[in-house]
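#struct-help
A.M.: can someone run this one for me? Single chain, 232 residues.
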Amino acid sequence: QWFVRNIPFIEIPDKHIEDVYYYRWSSLKRHLRYTTVGTGYMVTEFVTDPGYAQKFGVINAAGGHQIYETRWLRDTRYAKDYINFYARGLDIKGNHQYSEWIADSAYNTYLVNGDKEFIVSQLDGFVKIYNDWVDHFEPKLGLYYITPERDAQEYSAASMQTKDPFGGGLGYRPSHNSEMYGNAEAIIKMAQMKGNKDIENEFITKAKELRENIIKYLWDTNRQFFFHMQSI
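D.P.: on it. Structure tokens below:
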């Protein structure tokens, strides 16, 4: 009955793709966890919480993926509760445990549910989360740095170039910086809806400079692709 109330049903010629489609919804449902009154629903990454999970078993590395999926549920409280938790509830450790694109996924949730009042109410929280990443920012390059592990990409190619194949060394990663660009663009749109010109102009500048520096420093003209640049 939960599926009847919440998801779009489909019928397509390829039975395998159809099965995968419904499996994805069943997987999401298994990870919806009601917590407490006033907090509501969270989405866990693991059925059994690992030791490094934050409060209620959430891990911000998965947050963007999970919000992008829960936004399609007809019952909007699942996505809203989870967005509220990040924008208003977590401390800096939980919000920055791994790289994230939660402001971006929250804005894209608004594009589905059309709840302007809700997304505008998250603006101050997402501005704080973004600005708190300053401890991972190198102003000389205008880029954010992080390890592959904290970018949720342990054992990646960049990790293998260091003495720590699992964690890797600090570096300027195309993925993390692109996520920050996406978050900045989402904040611009929220600020525009709220009519906050100061925040809008501040983040227009941040997004423009970050995009320019990603292309300037992380694009490899020979290999025609973006690459991790090790921090010295």
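A.M.: thanks! The chain is about 55% helix and 10% strand.
D.P.: also worth noting: The chain has a mean pLDDT of 95.
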